[in-house]
Amino acid sequence: xxxxxxxxxxxxxxxxxxxxxxxxxxxxxxxxxxxxxxxxxxxxxxxxxxxxxxxxxxxxxxxxxxxxxxxxxxxxxxxxxxxxxxxxxxxxxxxxxxxxxxxxxxxxxxxxxxxxxxxxxxxxxxxxxxxxxxxxxxxxxxxxxxxxxxxxxxxxxxxxxxxxxxxxxxxxxxxxxxxxxxxxxxxxxxxxxx
Length: 194
Known about the structure:
The protein is an alpha+beta fold. The protein has a domain at 20-146: Orthogonal Bundle (Jann2411-like fold), CATH 1.10.3300. The chain has helices at residues 20-25, 45-54, 67-85, 92-103, 129-146, 178-193; strands at residues 28-29, 39-40, 107-114, 117-124, 152-154, 163-165. A two-stranded antiparallel ribbon has the order 1-2. The protein has a two-stranded antiparallel sheet with strand order 3-4. A hairpin with a 2-residue loop joins β3 and β4 (117-124). α3 (67-85) packs parallel to α5 (129-146). The radius of gyration is 19 Å and the shape is globular. The protein starts with 19 loop residues before the first helix and ends with a helix.
């Protein structure tokens, strides 16, 4: 008989996303067994450092995280992306929410040169948490404008809340990962049949 062992949630994600907004939303999640309270990593300095490094968001030193604002942004982005994934049009409130997170950050254009090639790039005037929240929101807007709504999914394990973007050719991915959720659900289906 297959046994799926329980492991306490890691301080860092095992299955990160290529989209900053998805990793940000997944900072709060329920485990694959559903027998524990939700885990919230957003207050964790370890998770914050991982998230910033993974998505190339370098903060100025001494910038304290505004946890309440981070939690609010996570809820807002989760609501907007959920609407979009269900095929619903974004309303004025959604657009205003996204715009307010981005428009409050001051940027400047810089001429950059790499290997003799010149380009224009936007640079924040302040690398603070407001800028990080704007970049996370930009990630959501990029996903909304270039992604396919039916590819944004929650894990099919009813106990797991993990959000992911299904990049398989036939859009067939059902679980956040093969282990533990895919294996756990396979074992549950086997037990129901016997």
